[in-house]
Amino acid sequence: MAARWIERRFERLIWKFRLISIVPVVLSLLGSVGCFVIGAIEVFNAFLVIMRLPFSTKSVAAKTIAQMVGGVDYFVIGIALLIFGYGIYELVISDLDPRLEGGAEQHTNILSVNSLQSLKNNLSNVIVVGLIVAAFKKTIGFEVNNATDLLALSGSVVMLALSAWLIVRSHGTSHES
């Protein structure tokens, strides 16, 4: 009898330890907000450059566009942090009730996390999109001076297209199951 009582008390204590995961949840949500702010500042600063300067050179336009794409990159990182925080909260602590109001089928989106595997899939998709955006930013100002440069640029474009195709393909197979 006493052993069963000790076991129940220990199991309750273990169950309460799941609340330690609130630390990465809160910090990733705060990091998400920070990334959104940094991204907004990047895009806003690029917009100010557009408003102030007449583009006399192609390099100024390329740098401004790269700065805007850099802002989008921060947004994608913010989304990854948001998905992580939301997913850990739903998996470990509790389901979020506001998402379930109005029927679960109405609110199925990238934030819907049913298992650790779905969280990993969502995060990997967003990370690949972030890498595609970062690679796009690097190719904006890329100058082709010789055949090697052209081959490198072509290879990167093929890899970006393959990555995008794999993401789309993974979404198609995951919705069919």
SSE layout:
Blueprint: H1 2-16, H2 22-52, H3 58-93, H4 97-100, H5 116-140, H6 147-176
Helix pairs in contact: 2-3, 3-5, 5-6
Structural write-up:
This protein is an all-alpha fold and 177 residues long. It has six helices and no strands. It has helices spanning 2-16, 22-52, 58-93, 97-100, 116-140, 147-176. α3 packs antiparallel against α5 (116-140) and α5 runs antiparallel to α6 (147-176). The longest helix is centred in the middle third of the chain and has 36 residues, at 58-93. It starts with a helix and ends with a helix. The model has no long low-confidence stretch (mean pLDDT 80).
Shape: elongated
**Structural class by sheet pairing and helices:** mainly alpha
Beta percentage is under 5%
Given as residue ranges, the uncertain stretches (5+ residues, pLDDT < 50) are none
Helical region count? 6
What is the CA-CA span between the terminal residues? 47 Å
What integer value in Å does the Rg equal?
22 Å
Main beta sheet: none
What is the helix fraction of residues, given as a range? over 70%
DSSP summary, beta strand count? 0
What is the mean pLDDT?
80
What is the succession of H and E elements?
HHHHHH
Which descriptors would you attach to this protein?
6 helices; about 0% strand; single chain; about 180 residues; mainly alpha
Give me a quick take on this structure.
The protein has helices spanning 2-16, 22-52, 58-93, 97-100, 116-140, 147-176.
